[in-house]
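S.,

Sequence below, as promised.
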Amino acid sequence: MEHSGRIKNLTVPHLFLGLRAEKKTGIAVFERAGVIKKVYIRDGYVLFASSNLDNDRLGECLLRVGAITREQYDTSVELLKKSDKKQGAILVELDILSSKNLVASVQLQVAHIILSLFSWRDGLYRFEEGPPPLDDIIPLHMSSGNLILEGVRRLDWQSVRDSLPPAETVLRPSADPVALFQDADLSQNQKAVLSLIDGKRSIKEICALSKAGDFYTLKVIYILLSLRMVEIGEIESEEERAFAREAVKQAVAVEERKPETPRAAVSSPMKQKILKALEKLDGQDDREVLGLDEDFSPQEAQAAYLRLAKLYHPDRHFDGDMRDMKSALEKLFSRITEAYNVLSNKAQREHIAYLSNQGRAKSARKTATREDRTAMNTVEKTPFALGVEKYEAGDYLTALESFRKASKLDPRDSGCHYYQGLVLSQLPRKLYEAEECFKKAIKLDPSKTDYSLELGKLLIKRGLTSNAFAVLKEALTRAPDSEQIKEALMSIEDKQS
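The prediction came back faster than expected:
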C-alpha cells in the first residue's frame, strides 16, 4: 500500500503488514485533530511508540490498570514538574517500580498507544524512512500479527460492520504463507471460521455453515481480512484450490503443547534445528531443500513447502534466545520459497526428475544458475530485454529475476515495475505483489494507459470489481480518448447491471 495518505478502515493493520513485508526501517506517523502518534519500525518489526496525548503517558497507563495508586501517581507528577527526568525513572527512584517492572510497564504503554490506532477511521498517516532514534527505547517484542489481532479484538461491532464487504462477497485464503502463517494467536473457534473459507463460499454462506453465530463469525472474518490471512476473490483453478486447502489445513492445525519449561530450554532445540538447516542449504538442490523423494508429486511438494514455511516463518520466533535468529530464518524462508517456486513449475519439475534419473540431481540447480548467469551477461541483452524475452516464452521465474535486476539498476523505470506486475499476475500466489508493482508503475508514469488497464484486469481477477472501476475511471480522466479504458469500464458496468 502507499506509504502516506488518509486513514480508512484497514489502513493501520495493512500498513504494519506492508512495512513488515518490505522490511522497512523508519517512523510511521499518525495525525488526527492535533493528536500525533508515532510508531518506530526496524526491519519491518514494531519496536516502540510515542504520543503527544496526555492519556497515553506512562503514569496514566499504569494508573488505569491499577499498577500504581492515585497517591503514587500524584507524587511522581509533582517530582516530574521539578525534574528533567522521565516519569518511569522517578517511579523507580521512589521504589514504586523495580527496574524489571519498568521495562514491562513501558511495553504496556507502547502497546496501548499502538492498539489505540486501530480504532481510528480518519486522519492522515505517513511513513518516514530512515533509522529511528533508538535512545531510551525499550523494544516491544510483539509480532505485528498479534498486535493487529489484539487491536481488532477491541473494536466495537459498529466499526466492524461498517468495514465489512457485502454479504455476497466471496473470500479466499491468502496464498502467501508470510500472511497465512504469521504469528497471530488465533483461537480454535477463529481457526474453525478460517477453515470454512475456500475461494468459493460467500460471507453469507460462511456464516450459515459456522457454528459460532453470525455476530462472532463476521468479527472473525474482519480479523482475518485485517491480518491479510484472507482476501476478497474466488479461486478458479483446481491447482490453486488444492494449494489453498493444504495451506488452510496447515494454518488451522493444532500445535502440540509441551510441558512448561524455561524459555531458554524451549528455544534451544529449535535454534539448533534452524542452524543445522541453514548449514545444509549450500549443498542442497531444490528437491533436497524441501526434503522430497525423487519421484515426488505436486501435492507432496505443496505439503512439504507449507509445513517448512510455517516452521521457519521469521515472525513465529520472538521468545528467549531466538531473537538473534531473524536473519537465519529470513534466509531459510526465502530459500524454501525459491525451491518451491521452481519445483511447482511443471516443466522445471519434469526437468529435475529427468536429471535425477540420470544421477545428476545435485547439479541441476547449479547448472541452471550458470546458464542464467551466462545469459544475463550476454552483451546483446540487458536484464530488461532478457526479461521480456523470457516472459513472452512463458519462463516466468527467469523473467521475474531479470526484471527485478533491471529495476535495481533503474528504480525509476516504470516499465520494469509494469513487467514485474505482468509476470507476477501469472503466478497464483503473487497477485498482491503484482498489484503493488502495477501501482508503482502508474505512480512513476501515470500517462501509460496500459498500466492502469492491467491493474484493472488484475483487480477484477481478484474479485475487487469496485476497486478496478475506480482505477479505470481515474485513468480515463488522464486519457479521455482511450477506447480500451472505455470498453473496460463498460464491461464492468455490464457485469454489475
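The mean pLDDT is 82.

Coffee later?
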